[in-house]
Amino acid sequence: MREPVTQRAYCPPLSKSRVTVYARTLHRACELLGGLDALSRHLNVSAPMLARWISGLEQPPLDVFLAAVDIVLLAAGPGEGTG
Fold this sequence. Notes:
4 helices
């Protein structure tokens, strides 16, 4: 797994009215990998479709969502996310 990118590349903004766990997870994975293009290559999906999922217009396929979950979890340090 790559180190998180420090420079911010373009990730579509989250919708204020359609925020879902799918959209939040894909958005965070987008930030971690360095942008929409990098995430779309990693997930092997088109950037326009990925943007629709991040904006909450559509729900991604389960396999794409789970791949994004992996990206987010692998980027978390030990002990992060535990309450």
